[in-house]
Inverse folding.
DNA sequence: GATTTAAATGAACGATGTTCACAAATCGAC
DNA sequence: GTCGATTTGTGAACATCGTTCATTTAAATC
């Protein structure tokens, strides 16, 4: 790899790191191109040499977050043989990840591309990979479903848990204490999976 | 009411209508102050005489949407004595409303105020009123809960259904046909409520 | 009808994402 | 190592936003 390509790659990385830190600290809506390039120590226009636009950079931020999420849920799901208990642990792990990485987690689901700009296929696949994390215990519980039906069911249950976590992290409705929310979530999974 | 006050009120209404139409047609993210005032036939600055800012106007748009939603769900919930069937009908009605009013419905949950700007209390109450719509069948099913626990449970179940509907209207994961989604939602409520 | 008061106006401002002509540094050939 | 060719970083400039405010206009008050 030549000096030129190496410098470009380094800069691309620094911009991503700067963007991640900004989102983590202040949220997606506070992200500014000028702040990112200042943090990365390069000119404003450089961002557009490394990424198509801000949306493209944000997708890469979200990609990193999905990687963290996958790791966190992967750790939580293994070593639990009982499928219902595994699903409970996964739901709690999802909640914990969202609480501990609120801004990064929010960014994944808040971000929308501009009109008629389709999400890149590789990023769509990263999103869908979340469903694989609950596939094993789900298949143990729903033995009557074929693979396609199972995937749909995974989506449904994931979406439900996601909704509960999502509503909890907003101040839209009554707010729950952390413990009450966790027990509510466990009750929910138990009710759904048993 | 004097001529002055009447004209002001009329303009306030025209701006709201224009904003609603714009959101309905093109979505919240395409809403522009200049478009709204053009549609309403007034100057740009007038918007800020009728509303604090764009956010304030959007809150009023969302308030109208919540009113429509309340009406749609109210119609769906009544006349069904069996609580599980009532909850199913409510969930389907919620899905239908979201599909038929996608942009308006999305705006309600997408919109966030700027840093440290608390949502006005009257609008928070409008949001929470959604939970009352499912309170009656929920109380019939959960006879062991006191009023406060019931409200928490309502929030949890609403959030779950909301999550399923919400994920469905994005292209984040695998997409379902309308019929499959409806049957999946009915299965979900049945599983949860029985 | 004259004076006071309040509202509508739209030009101007600051902030923002994005572009592009230019400069600087790297690369390839000899 | 030298020299053109080429690619990349630069930042001023641009277009588009939301928002403000001095001015204009019209209603309300006397």
């Amino acid at each position: 790899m030549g000096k030129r390509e190496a410098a470009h790659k380094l800069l691309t990385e620094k911009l991503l790191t700067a963007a991640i830190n900004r989102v983590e600290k202040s949220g997606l809506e506070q992200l500014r191109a000028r702040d990112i390039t200042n943090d990365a120590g390069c000119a404003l226009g450089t961002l557009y040499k490394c990424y198509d636009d801000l949306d493209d950079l944000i997708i890469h931020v979200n990609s990193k977050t999905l990687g963290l999420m996958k790791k966190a849920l992967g750790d939580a799901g293994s070593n639990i043989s009982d499928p219902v208990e595994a699903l409970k642990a996964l739901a709690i792990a999802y909640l914990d990840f969202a609480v501990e990485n609120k801004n990064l987690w929010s960014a994944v689901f808040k971000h929308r591309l501009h009109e008629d700009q389709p999400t890149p296929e590789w990023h769509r696949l990263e999103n869908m990979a979340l469903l694989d994390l609950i596939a094993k215990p789900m298949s143990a519980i729903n033995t009557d479903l074929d693979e396609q039906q199972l995937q749909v069911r995974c989506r449904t249950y994931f979406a439900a848990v996601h909704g509960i976590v999502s509503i909890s992290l907003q101040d839209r409705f009554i707010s729950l204490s952390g413990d009450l929310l966790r027990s509510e979530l466990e009750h929910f999974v138990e009710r759904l999976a048993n």
